[in-house]
Write a structure and sequence with these properties.
11 strands, 4% helix
Length: 120
C-alpha cells in the first residue's frame, strides 16, 4: 500500500504560479498528476517515470507546467506557471508501477487531492 498526500493548492490569480507537492510513502513508482474540474471527467496532466528522466504532459499544460521528483524525499512536484481560470480543478497525485502502465490508464494508488482555484 502506497500513501500519497498532496499539498500546495490554493487560490491564485490568472497568470500566477503555484507548486503542488505529493509526498509518497515509496519512491519505487511512476507518478502522475491528474485533475478534475467540477462537472468534468478526470484528466491526465503530467507523468514522470521512476528515475525522473522521462516525462509526459497534456497538450493543455505544455510549456506552463513542469513535473519533477526528488526520490531522496519521496516527493513529486508540479510547478504550475501562467495559470488560467480553466486550470481550476482538484489536482490528484497518482502512482503505478511504470509510466507505460499509467499511460494505458491503470492507476494503483490515488491521493485525496488538493484544490487549485484560478481567478480571472
Amino acid at each position: 500500500q502506497v500513501q500519497l498526500v498532496e499539498s500546495g493548492g490554493g487560490l491564485v490569480q490568472a497568470g500566477g504560479s503555484l507548486r503542488l507537492s505529493c509526498a509518497a510513502s515509496s519512491n519505487n513508482y511512476a507518478m502522475g498528476w491528474f485533475r478534475q474540474a467540477l462537472g468534468k471527467e478526470r484528466e491526465r496532466v503530467a507523468l514522470i517515470n521512476r528515475s525522473g528522466d522521462s516525462r509526459y504532459y497534456a497538450e493543455s499544460v505544455k510549456g506552463r507546467f513542469t513535473i519533477s521528483r526528488d526520490n531522496a524525499k519521496n516527493t513529486v512536484y508540479l510547478q504550475m506557471n501562467s495559470l488560467k481560470p480553466e486550470d481550476t480543478a482538484v489536482y490528484y497525485c497518482a502512482a503505478s508501477p511504470s509510466l507505460s502502465v499509467i499511460r494505458f490508464g491503470r492507476i494503483d494508488y490515488w491521493g485525496k487531492g488538493t484544490l487549485v482555484t484560478v481567478s480571472s
